[in-house]
Amino acid sequence: MRNLMCHLKSAMSTLANTEKNITVKAQWGKIAAITWGNSSNPPVLLCPGRMVPCSSFRPLIKHMPDCFFYVAIDLPGSGLSDHLPPGIRYTVLDLLPSIAKVVEHFKWEKIMFIGHSLGTVIGTYFTMAYPNRVTRFVQLDPIPLYHTVTPETFESWYKEYYRSNYDDDQYVKHTSGRHTAPRHSLDVIKRRLMAAHKINEETLEHVLDRYIEPAGDGLYRFTYDQRMKNTTTMPFSPDNLKLFLTSAKIPILAIFAKFVIDAGVYSKVPFAFDTKAWPHDNYGYKIVYGYHDVHMSSPELMADDIAKFLLHSKAKL
Predict the structure, then answer these.
(1) Nearest to 160 by CA among 89, 75, 221
(2) What cellular-component terms does GO give this entry (predicted)?
């Protein structure tokens, strides 16, 4: 990457003032997104987690250098993006075209990628399906990326992600459209979201407008597609997953939340914390104090590391 003149101290005000809402056309409808910065700068594409709006990256963006063009998308079925057509399952592979459409829209040849949770899986598969397009990859608490399935647990995996979808009640729920989604009071929604994301009300305001919509009688419903609750990942065994992930050659920086690690989520994938297990010497990680959405609640714990990672042509992890 060329030598870039960046401003870290002024980024908080500068980038916030450049925020724009855009839409990208796709065959199934529109992809909604938010941009920050000058479009002539090198692009950084940000992909959120399951059902979470792209505005969840606002707290982190405020701490990022202002010499990049940041584009965060609402995945299909989330935020302000259109839902996929009825009958289609939400799998990671079916979400890849949304990334490809945004890249095509901006005519980008190369991008840097920041993903959170499910977004890290989508980013990983995109790097494999579209080789040489992603130059560096930031993974924010990549829980589903390290989900493993053994022969003994395949039955439960299949039931959760496929078989249950065809139960009568689930099928009706997943194909009836957003107008049938449950309605709640605003107070109830706020409490649920703050508890789920472990965030305060100030941080909640960043995502609330894209998370919910009026549903009549003073009540609200979530904008996400009910099918997103069972977004399907691949059934990799621990050994196969290690082979798959460590084959990557692009620089990767993973940020792990301490409380998630303490809960044993990564117990079957010790290679996630062993840089020597990655044969191309391209992987580094940092553990930060917090929960799964720590990039929203405490972005300052990781912002400098991410900024340095994006800025250096050879990541110094």
Answers:
(1) 89
(2) membrane
The answer to whether 275 touches 101, Cβ cutoff 8 Å, is no
10: exposed, middle or buried (C-beta count within 10 Å: 0-12, 13-18, 19+)? exposed
pLDDT for position 313: 47
**Distance, CA of 205 to CA of 299 (rounded, Å):** 16
Question: What band does 5 get if pLDDT is binned at 50, 70 and 90?
Answer: low
Question: CA–CA distance from 278 to each of 119, 270, 271, 275, 306 (Å)?
Answer: 21, 12, 8, 6, 20
- Among residues 147, 89, 94, the alpha carbon closest in space to that of 117 is found at 147
Residue spans of alpha helices (H) in 23-88: 58-61
CB 295 within 8 A of CB 256: no
CB 115 within 8 A of CB 125: no
Q: Which of 156, 155, 147, 117 is nearest to 268 (CA)?
A: 147
Rounded CA-CA distance 48/129 in Å is: 19
Taking only the tens place, the pLDDT of each residue in 213-227 is 999 999 999 999 988
How far is residue 317's CA from residue 77's CA, in Å, rounded to a whole number?
35
Q: Do 165 and 203 touch, CB atoms closer than 8 A?
A: no
For 230-249, how does the pLDDT look when each residue is reduced to its tens digit (9 = 90+)? 888 899 999 999 999 999 99
Q: Mean pLDDT throughout 250-264?
A: 97
- Residue 133 neighbours by CB distance under 10 Å: 17
